[in-house]
Structure to design on (247 residues):
């Protein structure tokens, strides 16, 4: 953990863990027709995050977890940030509690499918639907003795003044991938220590950018929040200059 991360608030640390993951463990309450009705039922789901860090899901109405949600919308999502650690229990993880509610916001669809390109082939099926988790609180374990309950107001990023960024996000991502693919590779390999070429940007939010190369994802954090296309461009230019100086 960096010095900056160590000084961040629990809500900021938890949000960073969440934004770095492209999947989570979803816990729902087993509906009446399932064995052990009312008990916990856990499953693996792909996830994207809205600009405020609210989780977005694309799940099949035929799946048990979706049918559980239809009966009781209360859910918990575990975001595991411990991958690759010799001692996983020293690493960060976040359990988010809230209600999973259907969403027809086209921006949620675009953001999810950019994060998970392979989902495009089934996103239009009638038995699939998008959900947004209305967050109530989260539980952060950032290592031994670093344990916090966090209310939604302290976890979620207040993106209401950044609506212009959400409106420009698709154009920013397209521009970076089509015209500055070399910069995206530099972000991943020099600034984030990843390997290989062919990294693509999949999203930009006020706190950073999401990158993907095949099945691998990476998170590029910004030093300060951006609010629109102009400030995002300035931050991305600054970061690629830093990468070129370090290469």
């Amino acid at each position: 953990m960096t010095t900056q991360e160590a000084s961040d608030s629990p809500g900021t640390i938890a949000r960073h863990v969440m934004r770095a993951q492209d999947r989570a463990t979803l816990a729902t309450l087993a509906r009446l027709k399932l064995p052990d009705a009312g008990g916990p039922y856990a499953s693996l789901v792909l996830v994207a995050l809205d600009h405020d860090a609210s989780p977005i899901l694309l799940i099949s109405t035929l799946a048990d977890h979706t049918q559980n949600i239809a009966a009781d919308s209360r859910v918990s999502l575990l975001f595991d940030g411990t991958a690759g650690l010799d001692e996983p229990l020293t690493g960060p993880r976040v359990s988010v509690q809230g209600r999973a509610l259907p969403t027809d916001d086209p921006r949620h669809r675009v953001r999810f499918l950019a994060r998970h390109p392979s989902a495009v082939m089934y996103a239009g099926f009638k038995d699939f639907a998008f959900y947004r988790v209305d967050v109530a609180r989260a539980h952060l374990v950032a290592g031994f003795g670093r344990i916090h309950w966090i209310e939604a107001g302290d976890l979620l990023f207040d993106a209401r003044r950044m609506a212009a960024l959400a409106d420009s996000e698709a154009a920013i991502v397209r521009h970076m991938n089509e015209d500055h693919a070399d910069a995206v590779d530099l972000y991943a390999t020099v600034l984030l220590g990843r390997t290989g070429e062919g990294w693509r940007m999949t999203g930009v939010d006020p706190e950073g950018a999401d990158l993907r190369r095949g099945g691998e994802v990476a998170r590029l954090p910004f030093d300060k929040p951006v609010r629109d296309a102009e400030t995002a461009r300035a931050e991305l230019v600054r970061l690629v200059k830093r990468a070129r100086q370090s290469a």
